[in-house]
Design brief:
Blueprint (H helix, E strand, L loop, with lengths): L1 H10 L6 H13 L4 H7 L6 H13 L3 E6 L2 E6 L8 E5 L5 E4 L2 H13 L10 E4 L2 H4 L1
Parallel strand pairs: 3-5
Antiparallel strand pairs: 1-2, 3-4
């Protein structure tokens, strides 16, 4: 994945820097994360202004996407770097489970075709209680 990230930076005329690579690696491991959490977790990598600039660049290049989980804006790697997925999110502990749903994805594509609709994206999220919080 890191090679793919570096390739995109080169294609877009952006420098491959150690901080950018570290931030990308962080996002690979973190899953969905709020911007304030991203900032707190990466202050050792770069100063606050540099973190915001890197995050803005990541968004402009389509490396990260915004999501709303439990009413909170989070960022995570885009489908370029992570298989397209959705989330099951616990309302109690905040745990978010990434899920893939190929049957529903195919049904959605067919539904769009039926109505002559050209979708440029979609979001499917489920909230409730995880197994641990149900007990």
């Amino acid at each position: 994945m890191l090679d793919k990230f570096h390739e995109l930076l080169r294609e877009r005329g952006k420098s491959i820097t150690r901080p950018r690579s570290k931030l990308f690696e962080y996002l690979l491991k973190s899953g969905p994360v709020s911007v304030p959490q991203f900032m707190r977790d990466n202050l050792a990598v770069a100063d606050r202004a540099s973190l915001y600039r890197a995050l803005t660049m990541f968004q402009e290049l389509g490396i990260v996407e915004d999501r709303i989980i439990r009413g909170q804006r989070v960022i995570e790697l885009s489908d370029l770097y992570d298989a397209h997925h959705h989330h099951l999110t616990c309302n109690n502990c905040g745990k978010s489970i990434a899920i893939t749903m190929p049957d529903i994805e195919n049904d959605l594509i067919e539904l769009c075709r039926t109505y002559g609709f050209e979708a440029d994206g979609h979001v499917i999220e489920a909230s409730g209680l995880c197994q641990d919080c149900q007990t």
